[in-house]
Write a structure and sequence with these properties.
This protein is an alpha/beta fold and about 140 residues long. It is built from five helices and five strands, in the order βαβαβαβαβα. It has one domain: Rossmann fold (3-Layer(aba) Sandwich), CATH 3.40.50. The relative contact order is 0.15.
């Protein structure tokens, strides 16, 4: 398919045509906060999930552009889930989050795998979220 903007840009970035996110976190307060931040960026929240099992179901249904995943989920390690989601056929952007800043060490500890971006929840704001999703 030809890029409709090829004459004006050096490349076409289709992710901005329809960008949706699934947020995975077992804290309802954080889910609401993340949803509001994404709305500030003009990004649709396709679904939310409170567990890894729910996340897999909604991600397969929604086929989002990105998934925000909490490291500490009640039924499974969020890091393992993030690596699994990153291997889906449409390759969604996966961003890990945690209230524990030290969790970033575990994220980087996978030999041979490119680690997903990590954001400490205490440092999460609209600009940090934008960078994690698009940079």
């Amino acid at each position: 398919m030809a890029c409709p903007t090829a004459g004006r840009q050096s490349r076409c970035d289709y992710r901005f045509l329809s960008f949706s996110v699934v947020v995975v976190d077992d804290d309802p307060t954080f889910l609401a906060l993340a949803t509001r931040m994404l709305a500030c960026l003009g990004i649709e929240v396709a679904a939310t999930a409170a567990s890894a099992v729910q996340a897999l179901a909604v991600v397969h249904d929604a086929c989002p552009s990105a998934v925000l995943v909490d490291v500490g989920l009640p039924d499974r390690n969020g890091i393992d889930l993030a690596y699994e989601l990153a291997e889906l056929p449409w390759v969604p952007r996966v961003v890990l989050m945690s209230a524990d800043r030290e969790a970033s060490i575990a994220v980087r500890g996978r030999p041979g795998a490119i680690p997903p971006p990590f954001v400490a929840k205490a440092e999460l704001d609209v600009e940090t979220l934008r960078r994690a999703l698009f940079d």
